[in-house]
Amino acid sequence: MRLVYPAATKFKYIMQTIAKVLDQIPFTADPEEGLVVKALSADKTTMVVMKIPLGAFEAFETTEKKSFIVPADELNKVAKRGTRNDIVEIVLEEEQRRLRINFIDKKTGVRRTFYIPLIEGVVEELSEPQVELTVRAQMTADDFKHIVRDAKIVSDEVEFVAEQERLVARSLTPQKEYYNIMELGRPLISYEVRGNPPIVSKYAVDLLQSSLKATQAASTATIEFGESLPMRISFDLPGGGTLIYWVSPRV
User: What pTM value is reported for the model?
Assistant: First the structure.
């Protein structure tokens, strides 16, 4: 298996985001779907779903589906070494039980090579949660980042309240309060509420914060939730890819 991804910095931010949640990253390289990660955090509070389609790669060479697991901390350390001038070449060396990652400078052709050992194990077939999420709001990735960072100043949890014409993010403590009132165009790109508002759900700020590295690779973030249901956060990646976080609610 050999994959070539054209932007090392985007690859770095994607891997850093996943490594915030997972200790081990299970990859599947599928000649029809592209590169996929689906995994739960150790405490089962977060699910990560990454999909990078074939068209996002300069080369995607594998004749059959390949699954492998790598240690998240080791991959994160290597991914950090990529620069904006590099492309990333990923080669699965099955006999040596390792992953070879090459950073190749697009201007000079200089190649830097790292090897990461594979972890023995079976990649589980997981499905995303089957729940009806009645609120959908799209905003810039930076706007989502500001909500999470602002809320953290006040509390360890943030509550989202979906009304018919606006979405409110708020954090409350006996001494401090934070509100962010969002409407279509200010700053929401799109907004949809089904059912009977207000629809309210609360989430741990630390769980939401674990997704924020993705805001450096994505232009938009779409959040979906329902009354006291998990939140689905979707980041659009270059080349048609997506990075999705499912975050359990605070009850």
Answer: 0.91
Q: Which fold has domain 2-117?
A: DNA Polymerase III; Chain A, domain 2 (3.10.150)
Instruction: Note the pLDDT of residue 174.
Output: 93
Pick out the chain residues at pLDDT < 50.
none
Taking CA atoms, 55 is separated from 28, 164, 221, 240, 241, in Å, by 16, 38, 21, 8, 9
Report how far residue 89's alpha carbon sits from residue 80's, in angstroms, rounded to the nearest whole number.
Answer: 14
Q: What is the pLDDT of residue 125?
A: 87
Mean of the per-residue pLDDT values of the chain: 95
Cα–Cα distance measured from residue 36 to residue 60, given in angstroms and rounded to the nearest whole number: 13
Structural contact between residues 178 and 171, judged by C-beta atoms closer than 8 angstroms? yes
Q: What is the CATH number of domain 135-238?
A: 3.70.10.10
Cβ neighbours around 104 below 10 Å, total: 17
Residue ranges of the alpha helices (H) in the chain? Answer: 8-19, 72-79, 141-154, 205-209
